Amino acid sequence: MAWHMNAKYFESCNCELGCPCNMSGFPSHGNCEGVVGVQVTSGERDGVDLSGAKFVGAVKWPGAIHEGNGEMVLFVDAPNAQRDALMPILTAEDPGLPWEILVATVSTIHGPFFETVDIDDKKTDSVVKVGDKLEVRFESFKDPVSGEPHEAHMVLPNGFIFQDGLIGTTSVNRLNADGVTFDHAGKNAYYSEVQWSSENRMAPVVG
Predict the structure, then answer these.
(1) What residues pair up with 167 in beta bridges, in sequence order?
(2) Is pLDDT of 175 > 50?
(3) For the chain, what is the domain count?
């Protein structure tokens, strides 16, 4: 089924600042534990308007993301019609990047849990919360001399999630839901505005 969405994108993980996964494919500390939060600003699937939907995936991978075997907790905040439209996208039943790749690296999904997702969108000073189960508080970098905000970007022309992301850090980055936990304040974070669709697909494997 064809779909598309424009969204605000919030990411935090346990990697050091900049996140080497985007350069070499391997995380700072041998494993990856992170949060992806999404607030849809516009979009559609099969006649269903996706605007306003929010969802969060918190994932623990035992190694690098591309090595797979991840365990994800999925939260969705949307009316019933949007839930029915979103779930085939988020589980890659309806292919399209980035979920087509991300879901392929996950072995276990907890949920989806249909709960309130609170997002205070202030770019690299945003907050993403799901009750007492998940909280991420983003922090902009500060110039060490002037104390003014210091803007840094990760530019990935061929990135399958984002192409230009503001880099920041976190003062809080914790998950405790359905037996899955982590706590990684002070590590890497990204903020971006993204465009995803079913027309953007994985390249075919040749060989």
Answers:
(1) 190
(2) yes
(3) 1
